[in-house]
TrEMBL record, chain A:
Keywords: Membrane, Transmembrane, Transmembrane helix. Residues 191-236 are annotated as: Disordered. Coiled coil: none annotated. This is Sec62/63 complex, subunit Sec66. InterPro entries: Sec66. PANTHER family: TRANSLOCATION PROTEIN SEC66. GO terms for biological process: post-translational protein targeting to membrane, translocation. It comes from the Eukaryota.
From TrEMBL, chain B:
One of its GO terms (biological process) is protein folding. InterPro entries: TPR-like_helical_dom_sf, TPR_rpt. Gene3D superfamilies: Tetratricopeptide repeat domain. This is Translocation protein sec72. It comes from Podospora didyma. SMART domains: TPR. GO terms for cellular component: cytosol; nucleus. GO terms for molecular function: Hsp70 protein binding; Hsp90 protein binding.
Length: 236, 217
């Protein structure tokens, strides 16, 4: 009565097995790929050089020949930690400025999911890094953790300001040279006018230009007219 | 995530006397990463030295807000002396004082407020620009005024005006016009700058008409 027709069931069973097998294979491969991908996501920031230096100083190895591990004075460690905090400030500023842009780009679908993943990971990393720095700071000097980032923030701002000012003041020599040359050129061109009237070279030129049409001044205006044309070319 | 527990061990060496940190890798290899390391170590050593300059009770930089008034007083004094010389008409002396003041202000420890530095530096640069202008050193004046604007963009109409003036005196009308345009954007309808713009228009018009008149002849 309950005689099962195994032969007839072979086809549907085989179908189920194949279907299940496909699902399993697909999901394992897909997950593996996903995991590999997210592990291989490029980090948002490059290597943290200051952090590496700080930690390398903590784990300084004995030099060749001597057994003793060299002792790094606390002041050096403090300086290294402060450098690390400055770099963290730079990173956190970058993260904050990028965040709004990044999320709006993601909403519009202009950037892929992996970028957003990288971004969030970087954000979390920076947060952990800050906490770590505060802990280290407190260990090096009581209550330093509360103010180390204030100091680091000012250091970052001051460094940026100094760089900008240096960039500008560096031009001084160049500008001076240019102006010396320029003035010498103007002087030689308008020597006569400068002697006659102690006015500015441009005005002297305009006088020469306006008197252009008068036939009486033909002799004096030819030398002044040609440099005028030259000067205009020089400026452009 | 994994980054938090690991780090790259760098080959560092500490000089037992000077406590200066250096790279043990040797400076013969000059790839970009070693160069970055060297630069960072130089900055570290500089910071370490400047930390030594802290006054006795502090071993770490104090919070930025209560500022040590000594340096500010010195800067103010130098600026005042500069202003006095300027009023007496001794512009070269004034420039010397302003330059000293700038040195004093720019060597302020890095962890002290940058806003304060901007405040001091913009006045000094602006005053020095004015003194340079009195000596007809237009190039130096232009650079100083630009630096002043860089230190403080808003509420610094004088510096905007001074650079424009210098550029005009050097005959760089295009640049001057652009500069004043930027200045007007930042400062609003500043009267001084509006007048400057008019002056630029007048002078560039007269010079170009002279040049074209000369070209015809």
């Amino acid at each position: 009565m309950f005689d099962i027709d195994w032969r007839g069931l072979v086809v549907p069973l085989a179908y189920l097995v194949v279907l299940g097998g496909t699902f399993v294979t697909f999901s394992t491969i897909y997950r593996k790929r996903k995991a590999v991908e997210s592990a291989n996501l490029a980090p948002w920031f490059g290597p943290h050089l200051q952090r590496n230096i700080y930690l390398s100083l903590l784990h300084l190895e004995p030099e060749n020949g001597s057994e003793k591990t060299p002792k790094v004075p606390d002041s050096v460690l403090r300086a290294a930690l402060l450098r690390r905090a400055v770099e963290d400030i730079r990173r956190i500023i970058q993260i904050r400025t990028a965040k709004a842009a990044c999320s709006s780009l993601l909403q519009r679908g202009s950037v892929g999911d992996d970028l957003w993943q990288r971004f969030q990971r970087a954000e979390k990393e920076v947060e952990d890094e800050l906490r770590d720095v505060v802990m280290e700071a407190n260990a090096l000097s009581p209550n330093w953790g509360q103010i180390i980032f204030q100091s680091a923030n000012e250091i970052a701002a001051n460094t940026a300001l100094r760089e900008q000012l240096d960039d500008i003041t560096k031009q001084t020599e160049h500008e001076k040279e240019w102006w010396e040359k320029r003035r010498a050129a103007i002087k030689s061109e308008f020597l006569k006018e400068l002697e006659d009237e102690s006015e500015k070279p441009t005005q002297a030129k305009s006088v020469a230009g306006s008197e252009d049409s008068e036939p009486v001044l033909v002799d004096t205006n030819t030398p002044s007219a040609t440099p005028g044309g030259k000067k205009k070319k020089g400026r452009k | 995530m994994s980054d938090l527990d690991t780090f790259t061990l760098l080959p560092l060496r500490i000089d037992p006397q000077s406590k200066a940190i250096s790279s043990a890798a040797g400076s013969s290899s000059s790839s970009s990463s070693t160069r970055a390391l060297e630069a960072e170590l130089a900055a570290l050593n500089a910071l370490h030295r400047s930390l030594h300059g802290l006054e006795a009770p502090h071993t770490v930089p104090p919070p930025p807000v209560p500022v040590n008034p000594k340096r500010s007083a010195n800067v103010t004094k130098l600026r005042e002396s500069g202003n006095n010389e300027y009023r007496k008409g001794r512009y070269a002396e004034a420039i010397k004082f302003y330059t000293l003041g700038l040195q004093m202000a720019l060597t302020r420890p890095m962890w002290e407020p940058s806003q304060l530095v901007r405040e001091e530096v913009h006045q000094l640069y602006s005053n020095r620009a004015q003194a340079h202008m009195q000596l007809l050193n237009w190039a130096e004046g232009a650079v100083d005024a630009e630096a002043s604007v860089e230190a403080k963009r808003q509420g610094n109409a004088k510096a905007w005006h001074r650079r424009a003036k210098c550029l005009v005196e050097m005959g760089r009308f295009e640049e001057a016009r652009e500069w004043v345009g930027k200045g007007l954007e930042v400062e609003g309808q500043e009267k001084e700058l509006m007048e400057m713009l008019k002056e630029i228009e007048n002078r560039s018009a007269s010079s170009s008409s002279a040049a074209s008149g000369g070209g015809k002849a």
